[in-house]
Amino acid sequence: MKPALLAVDWGTSSLRGALLAADGVVMEERAFPRGILTVPPHGFADVFEQCFGDWRTANPGLLCLMSGMVGSRQGWQEAPYCPCPAGFADIAGQLSWIASGPGSEAGRIAIVPGLSCARKGLEADSALASLPDVMRGEETQVFGALQTLQLQDAQDVVMLLPGTHSKWVQVKDGGITSFTTFMTGECYALLRQHSILARTLPTGDSPFDEAVFVQGVQIAVRGTSLLQTAFSVRTLALFERLPAEALESYLSGLVIGEELRAQSLNANQRVVLIANTALTQRYQLALAQCGIACDSPGAQVTWTGLSAIAQTLCP
Amino acid sequence: MKPALLAVDWGTSSLRGALLAADGVVMEERAFPRGILTVPPHGFADVFEQCFGDWRTANPGLLCLMSGMVGSRQGWQEAPYCPCPAGFADIAGQLSWIASGPGSEAGRIAIVPGLSCARKGLEADSALASLPDVMRGEETQVFGALQTLQLQDAQDVVMLLPGTHSKWVQVKDGGITSFTTFMTGECYALLRQHSILARTLPTGDSPFDEAVFVQGVQIAVRGTSLLQTAFSVRTLALFERLPAEALESYLSGLVIGEELRAQSLNANQRVVLIANTALTQRYQLALAQCGIACDSPGAQVTWTGLSAIAQTLCP
Q1: Are A132 and B239 inside 8 Å of each other by CB?
Q2: Domain range spanning residue A259?
Q3: Could you tell me how many helices (H) and strands (E) chain A has, helices first?
Q4: Which CATH number fits the domain that encloses residue B219?
Q5: Closest by Cβ to A228, choosing from B121, B134, B180
Q6: B165 interfaces chain A, CB cutoff of 8 Å
Q7: What's this model's pTM, rounded to 2 decimal places?
Q8: What CATH number did the domain enclosing B99 receive?
Q9: Are strands A109-111 and A64-67 parallel, antiparallel or unpaired?
Q10: How far is B260 from chain A (nearest CA, A)?
Q11: By CB atoms within 10 Å of each CB, which of A250, B88, B99, B309 scores lowest?
């Protein structure tokens, strides 16, 4: 069987690629610690060739689609944002083609556009009447997940893509109407590594303590701000109310709980959770505290999304 | 005129001392970059002697009162917390005397206790049914401010002591009933220096932009969580909706606004603001956005508080 697509997920800190058959089946997969932050300006073609050149030599003329921060201003080539509301056809129709690719095969490598949206800010006459938000890569995962879960026509779905910058995505009638970014993973890392709490917490990773994590979530969703709840990590340690090895799980619960507190979800809301195994476990636990169950379409949604876009080009 | 008290404010990052007359008038003042984090274990007596030895030689038997983190487990000698509710007489009556001071003058150097309080946490049968909070140094400022403003008998006052760890203090009938810590200054510094926003903001300090700061406060008090609003620093820069030199003021407004959003204040609430000049300006602006005016008793409240405690010892 010959591959029909080289699918690439090129983010800030990692680079993954897969050879996909025409029906989307994964034939081969690779990952490299070559996120865009490790690539010098004008070095993207070289890194791409180092990582995937053999696949391209073995499959002349192979189509390549890439999603993620590779399309940002700091990436290979800026792929202009597609404004919301945006459906699958909108992003598939606005691919940013690399003019001169490795091997001089122009028109065979493209970057999927990210999305932008505008949320209400201050008064209509204010300079900040609207506040922009952006994503790159998550749009491909969302459309892949909708296909995997057969939800292309679902009326109202909330998709949650947790991580360094968590995205909460509103999907209506198969399109993305709006989304909101939360700096959850990043703020956890800042508090864990650089704040006064770092002096209280053990240096290495502690085993995950599910019960304490859930208590952290409960404190956060009943609280008003992480600025306040986070200090309890220090005081509970000071008064020896939590063992040192439980503090990391407690802080994780506080930060994820803060993200959930800020949502206006009702218990009947359908939430689709797109995350790796570790984050899926934590967010399922946290969402359950809010009475919300979720579907998890699995880790292959980026490949599914890129494969679906490829099929619009070569149906 | 002979001094009646050597008053010392020994915090995490700085050490200040003053010679006070019997009526509390400041005769001489000094500051050193010798916060407790710079002092090796068992090195406190030496640092104290280096900084204030000449004053003590010139005034044999001079009483010395200290407040701040010097009384913490990492300080000179642990001064046990005084639990809330706590009045002025409670802290004045629970001084922690240094047994063997420099110059062998036992019983002339004491540390003012910090305060602890317990806030409602989870269900009564939970291990986290109550959440502790702590302060060290702010209790002395609060009682100093009550005296300065002649509010010793005021029924209901909210005191705000902003900083690395802001304290919101509830005062009733001259005593501290409870308080809450917000990691405001620390989270600002984390986002400013260590987050992805640091790549967007100019490297050096920008001049304070009052209008943009106020917009940041407005966005935050209408928002739900700093985890979300903070990302707008990045997107507003990305779309060139705010100039680079305004982003620092905007972030400052977002973080201080988040602290105010989390309070349940009514517009008639009397707030006493105890801060340095720069923070006083920012918090007055931010509180005004919530319709709240505030009194500022000035920077000498620590000396006023320590002087009042000294007067209970030698009336």
Answers
A1: yes
A2: 184-295
A3: 11, 14
A4: 3.30.420.310
A5: B180
A6: yes
A7: 0.95
A8: 3.30.420.300
A9: parallel
A10: 10
A11: B99
Claim to verify: residue A156 and residue A205 sit in the same structural domain = no
Handedness of CA B208, B213, B214, B217 (dihedral sign): negative
Which positions in chain A touch B214 (Cβ < 8 Å)?
none
Domain match, A189 and A144 both:
no
Q: What does the pLDDT look like over B267-314, one tens digit per residue?
A: 778 899 999 999 999 999 999 999 999 999 988 999 999 999 999 997
Over residues A25-52, the pLDDT tens digits come to: 999 999 999 999 999 989 999 999 999 9
Helix axis angle, B247-261 relative to B184-194, nearest 10°?
150
Could you list the beta-strand ranges (E) of B85-143.
96-97, 109-111, 115-120, 130-135
B127·A261 Cβ contact <8 A: no
> What is the nearest CA distance from B219 to chain A, expressed in angstroms?
7
Q: How many domains does chain A have?
A: 2
On whether both A166 and A62 belong to a single domain, the answer is yes
Q: Are residues B22 and B135 in the same domain?
A: yes
ipTM: 0.95
Q: Does B194 touch chain A (CB under 8 A)?
A: yes
C-alpha A192/C-alpha A198 separation (Å) is 5
Contact criterion met (CB below 8 Å) for A195 and A234? no
Q: How far is A184 from chain B (nearest CA, A)?
A: 6
pLDDT digits (tens, 9 = 90+) for A99-132: 865 555 567 999 999 999 999 999 998 989 999 9
Q: A159 and A197 share a domain? A: no
Give yes or no for B208 touching A (CB within 8 A): no
Same domain for A271 and A136? no
Q: State the angle between helix axes of B277-289 and B247-261 in degrees (0 to 180), rounded to the nearest 10.
A: 60
Distances (CA, A) of B237 to A118, A133, A259, B157, B234: 14, 11, 23, 40, 5
Whether residues B57 and B142 fall in one domain: yes
Quick one: A173 and A283 in the same domain?
A: no
- Tell me, yes or no, whether B177 lies in a domain: no
- Please give, rounded to a whole number of angstroms, the shortest distance from the CA of B204 to a CA of chain A: 20
Residue B239 lies in a domain: yes
